């Protein structure tokens, strides 16, 4: 029974990520690619995203420190970042990328900086929540195990 | 690891059975997209090879390799998807070439199509898009 309760908690945690607008359908697509041949696929993809995007975050931070701002360069970095965020279904981060790019097109440096500060916060929050989720999911094991009769 | 219930798109993810496996070349510089698309295409029962830019794709064909389907990214270093597709078509390559791009403006997609693509999709690929592509390939 306890196991079932744990599984419900994991499922609830997962659902909350969608309900809070942090994840979208692309995350479900990744889950559907996970199988016995790739048992940790989703976590691997998310880990790869955070590893690769760290460089982009640094590039954008450095570019925002320069004066005058190179909006074309900023837009290019954010285009890459948005592509990666879309690939893991990071819905909120993706929409902030879009907003940032709109500020770039408008040449609005302050808008870019404010949006990027918020984006970094949401990027970090998502990372923490996904790490917690993956850890819990690993601890409780697959759903089939919970249902197996003794 | 426990995950959510399968959705209707998982039912759409049927493995397309052919006598010979469909061969797919993924031309993509982003390691994250490479991983996702490779696993996705493998799950659809295709045989997959991955290269990191357009020049590597062209070089493969020059060396005598051939694929049923090429998934061609647009922005890549050394040789981008537009140039690689143009080059492959000028070599007489008749493989199905599907553009996969993060550019979503119609004008950008139309411009990429002019290189000689059979179709073009905005990233990321999903089960529905892959099913459409593979069914079209099978029917042709």
From TrEMBL, chain A:
Taxonomically, what lineage is the organism?
Eukaryota, Viridiplantae, Streptophyta, Embryophyta, Tracheophyta
GO biological process entries: cytokinin-activated signaling pathway; phosphorelay signal transduction system
Name of the protein in question? Histidine-containing phosphotransfer protein
**Keywords of this protein's UniProt record, alphabetized?**
Cytokinin signaling pathway, Phosphoprotein, Two-component regulatory system
Q: Known Pfam families for this protein?
A: Hpt (PF01627)
Per UniProt, residues of the HPt domain are: 38-133
- Give the GO cellular component terms, alphabetically: cytosol; nucleus
Please verify whether the record's keywords include Ribosomal protein.
Answer: no
PANTHER family this protein is in? HISTIDINE-CONTAINING PHOSPHOTRANSFER PROTEIN 4, PHOSPHORELAY INTERMEDIATE PROTEIN YPD1
The cross-references to Gene3D superfamilies, in alphabetical order and at most eight, read: HPT domain
Per the record's keyword annotation, is Phosphoprotein included, yes or no?
yes
Q: Where does it reside? A: Cytoplasm, Cytosol; Nucleus
Q: What does this protein do?
A: Functions as a two-component phosphorelay mediators between cytokinin sensor histidine kinases and response regulators (B-type ARRs). Plays an important role in propagating cytokinin signal transduction.
- Molecular function terms from GO: histidine phosphotransfer kinase activity; protein histidine kinase binding
Superkingdom assignment: Eukaryota
UniProtKB/TrEMBL annotation, chain B:
Stretches assigned to the Response regulatory domain: 23-138
Cited InterPro entries? CheY-like_superfamily, Sig_transdc_resp-reg_receiver, ST_Response_Regulator
Keyword set for this entry? Phosphoprotein
Asked whether the UniProt record includes Phosphoprotein among its keywords, one would answer yes
Modified sites of kind 4-aspartylphosphate: 73
GO biological process per UniProt: phosphorelay signal transduction system
Q: Which domain of life is it from?
A: Eukaryota
**PROSITE patterns given in the database record:** RESPONSE_REGULATORY
Q: Does the keyword Phosphoprotein apply?
A: yes
Q: What's this protein's name?
A: Response regulatory domain-containing protein
UniProt organism field = Vitis rotundifolia
- Source taxonomy lineage? Eukaryota, Viridiplantae, Streptophyta, Embryophyta, Tracheophyta
């Amino acid at each position: 029974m306890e196991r079932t309760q744990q599984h419900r908690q994991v499922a609830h945690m997962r659902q909350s990520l969608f309900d809070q607008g942090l994840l979208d359908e692309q995350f479900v697509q990744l889950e559907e690619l996970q199988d016995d041949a790739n048992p940790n696929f989703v976590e691997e993809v998310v880990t790869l995203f955070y590893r690769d995007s760290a460089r982009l975050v640094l590039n954008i931070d450095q570019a925002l420190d320069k004066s005058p701002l190179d909006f074309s360069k900023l837009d290019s970095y954010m285009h890459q970042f948005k592509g990666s965020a879309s690939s893991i279904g990071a819905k909120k981060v993706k929409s902030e990328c879009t907003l940032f790019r709109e500020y770039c097109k408008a040449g609005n440096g302050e808008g870019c900086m404010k949006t990027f500060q918020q984006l970094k916060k949401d990027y970090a929050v998502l990372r923490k929540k996904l790490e917690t989720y993956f850890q819990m999911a690993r601890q409780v094991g697959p759903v089939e195990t919970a249902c197996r009769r003794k | 690891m426990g995950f959510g219930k399968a959705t209707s798109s998982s039912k759409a993810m049927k493995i397309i059975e052919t006598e010979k496996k469909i061969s797919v070349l993924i031309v993509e510089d982003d390691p994250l997209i490479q991983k996702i698309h490779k696993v996705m295409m493998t799950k659809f029962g295709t045989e997959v090879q991955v290269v990191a830019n357009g020049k590597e794709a062209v070089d493969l064909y020059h060396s005598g390799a051939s694929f049923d389907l090429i998934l061609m990214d647009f922005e890549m270093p050394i040789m981008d998807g537009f140039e690689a597709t143009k080059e492959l078509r000028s070599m007489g390559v008749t493989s199905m070439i599907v553009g996969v791009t993060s550019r979503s403006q119609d004008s950008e997609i139309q411009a990429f199509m002019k290189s000689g693509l059979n179709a073009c999709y905005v990233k990321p690929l999903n089960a529905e898009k892959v099913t459409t592509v593979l069914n079209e390939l099978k029917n042709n």
